[in-house]
Amino acid sequence: MIQVANCLLWMVYGMAIGDVFVWLPNIAGLVLGLVQCALLALYPDQNGGSLLSSIGTEGDVMLEDKESAYPP
């Protein structure tokens, strides 16, 4: 969602100053950000958690496995 806000603001700024090299790439970024938000809305996390919490959990599991594989 931050990408959408960022591209929207830069696009508006680019249009305000009339610079096609600012607003045109940000239209593409805005469209891709909206597609990403739509995909996240259509395919939420199956465990009921947020995307960031599931990534953190997997990393914690990997660290725990590594520690058990190499005892002190």
Describe the structure in your own words.
With 72 residues, this protein is mainly α. The protein has one domain (2-69). It contains three helices and no strands. The termini are far apart. The model has no long low-confidence stretch (mean pLDDT 79).
Short description:
The chain is an all-alpha fold and 72 residues long. The chain has 3 helices and no strands.
CA radius of gyration = 20 Å
Question: Could you list the spans in which at least 5 consecutive residues all have pLDDT below 50?
Answer: none
Instruction: State the major sheet.
Output: none
Q: What number is the mean pLDDT?
A: 79
How many E-type strands?
A: 0
**SSE string:** HHH
Find the structural class using helix and strand composition.
Answer: mainly alpha
Number of helices: 3
Percent helix range: over 70%
β-strand amount: under 5%
Shape designation = elongated
Q: Secondary-structure blueprint of this entry?
A:
Layout (H helix, E strand, L loop, with lengths): L1 H16 L2 H23 L8 H19 L3
Helix pairs in contact: 1-2
Quick tags:
mainly alpha, 72 residues, 3 helices
